[in-house]
Amino acid sequence: MYANRPRGILWIMSDQHSFRATRYAGNRTVATPALDRLRTQGSSVANMYTAAPVCTPSRFAMLTGLYPHTTGCVNNLTPLPHAHRTAAHHLGREGYFPGYIGKLHAVDAQTHGFEYCIDAGHYYDYLGPKTEIFCRTMQVGSPFVRGGQYERGSAGCCAPWLEIYQDEARNPWLDALPNPHLPADLPPKDRFGSFVTREAERFLRDYRDERFFLFVSYLEPHEPYLPPGSFRTQYDPARLALPPRPPAGRNGVPRFVSGRRWPTAWTDEGDELARLWLAAYYGNVSFMDRCVGRLLGVLDDLGLAEDTLVVYMSDHGDMMYEHGMFQKGVFYEACAHVPCLIRFPGRVAPGSTVAEVADLTSILPTTMGLSGLGVPSGLDGRSIAAAVPPAAGGLCSTTDPEACAFSEIGLDGAAGGRFMLRSGEYKYVHNRGDIDEVYNLADDPREFVNLLADGEEALPTGVRQIAADLRQRLRRKMPSRPYPLARATMTVNGVLGHL
Predict the structure, then answer these.
(1) I need a labelling partner for 213 at 20 to 30 A (CA). Which of 13, 60, 69, 206 fits?
(2) What is the pLDDT of residues 251-266, one digit of tens each?
(3) Cα dihedral sign for 50, 56, 62, 66?
């Protein structure tokens, strides 16, 4: 059973990295040499989806193998109940020393099974007085301006306790004059990604003689949209192509999508902002990729690369101005479709592709399966280890035609949530209190044509049956009880309560 046990298991997670922003997947603008190397040396899961297009629920779905509605961790203000086991518990029981370094985004002060923890609080200790610079950039570094005011920082910035800086009365820097003794920005060596990479190197050097499970979690390419050093000028906004616009007057667009669209989208002003944003986003992606490359280099230097299972993924993507949107929270491909790479020398075929559709709840059982360990019972996620082409040249199991990816979002939980099912070429989205959506991703990869725009009865017979089948399968995945709204542990406008 343990013949294929790796010495080390390394999970690398980025924040808000869209599948569309990877060179290996066809984006010829962005530079991602480290991820391209991982893809060449390992396998790309070409159809991996977030389990929730927002940070905390997605991360803990990945760590537990359970969907957000199962655990009750349904938004960025609800913690994971301690009764649920994470990968740290499961792999720790198998003899792996579990550590995390970076952005866990746990919403509470618990470590959820990890025995070695370096998080944003330690980063603030490292920064010392320069923490002011970090918090200022988190609050006003975004190019987005709403109602004349810059966006405020939030828990998504790294740690739950940073949420207090949304409360202007308690923020020591928001309206104060900047400290004249501090620089206006952090150099590359002081950025969160650099700090995380150095601490990961320390962990690997200290525990290289033990079996280890290390979860390295970067903040980048999440905001602030201020790439460090040369990454800030790596991409010329004037040379960046914008995504195609949807056809004018199209039907079947949910109301909330119209509400999320940037107010100046597809105007000269909006296009200029989008190019500035894309240049900054790509700069963040390339900086994160540089950090990943350094981390892979440490594995090489320590002689660990050949016996370490490496999995790279992101918690969710970003709309990248598709449909006139930025950021996350929707099920369009730019946001819901995430990169996923698996490298396991001698056991995973280099340069191979996994075509099976999956979501992030598959990461834990797949890791256990590839490592020759028993998959824990009671998980929502299923292992796709059998679909990963083996290095020995044998055949992987036939892709399951019924394989699917499920995703959900409860930021608007009072309305009952929104849900997605991807299977084969089709995607079905159920929006409670709004119109549903069906897209054929093979024919319509930008999702401009909602096949339900004129009602299900207007569909050709074959497509109507597909839509009905997807809807039934989606309903079986959805929570049968009212969508959970767990107790929040952080303040919203200074008040502890529900989101």
Answers:
(1) 69
(2) 999 988 888 898 899 9
(3) negative
Query: How many other C-beta atoms are found inside a 10 Å radius of the C-beta of residue 356?
Result: 24
- Nearest CA to 63 out of 384, 344, 362, 403 is that of 362
Instruction: Give residue 228's identity as a one-letter amino acid code.
Output: P
Domain ranges, ordered by start, for the chain: 8-395
- Amino acid 489: pLDDT: 41
Question: Which DSSP string do the residues of 90-107 spell out, in sequence order?
Answer: HHHHTTPEEEEEE----S
Reduced to 3 states (helix: H, G, I; strand: E, B; else coil), residue 433 is: coil
Is 434:257 a contact under the CB 8 Å cutoff? no
Nearest-angstrom CA–CA distance, 148 and 285: 28
Distance CA 239, CA 274 (A): 12
Q: With contact defined as beta carbons under 8 Å apart, do 225 and 277 qualify?
A: yes
Kindly give the interhelix angle for 55-64 and 363-370, rounded to the nearest 10 degrees.
30
Distances (CA, A) of 484 to 72, 331, 409, 479: 6, 20, 11, 9
Give buried/exposed letters for 237-264 (b at 16+ CB in 10 A, else e): eeebeebeebeeeeebbbebbeebbbee
Looking at residue 481, what is its pLDDT?
A: 72
β pairing state of 8-15 and 308-314 = parallel
- Residue 303: is it exposed, middle or buried by C-beta count within 10 angstroms (0-12/13-18/19+)? exposed
With beta carbons less than 8 A apart as the criterion, state whether 111 and 494 touch: no
Q: pTM of this prediction? A: 0.92
Neighbour order of strands in the sheet with 358-359 = 337-338, 48-49, 358-359
Separation of alpha carbons 52 and 361, rounded Å = 10
Is the four-CA dihedral 458, 463, 465, 469 of positive or negative sign? negative
49/328 Cα distance (integer angstroms): 13
| Structure tokens that stand for 130 in this block | 């320069």
8-395 classified as CATH 3.40.720.10: yes
CA distances from 422 to 108, 115, 268, 419 (A): 32, 36, 35, 10
**Beta-carbon-side half-sphere exposure of residue 251 (alpha carbons within 13 Å):** 5
**Tell me, what's the pLDDT at 415?**
55
Name residue 395's amino acid: L
Q: On the CB side of 4, how many CA atoms lie within 13 Å of its CA?
A: 19
Dihedrals φ, ψ of 406, to 5°? Answer: -120, 140
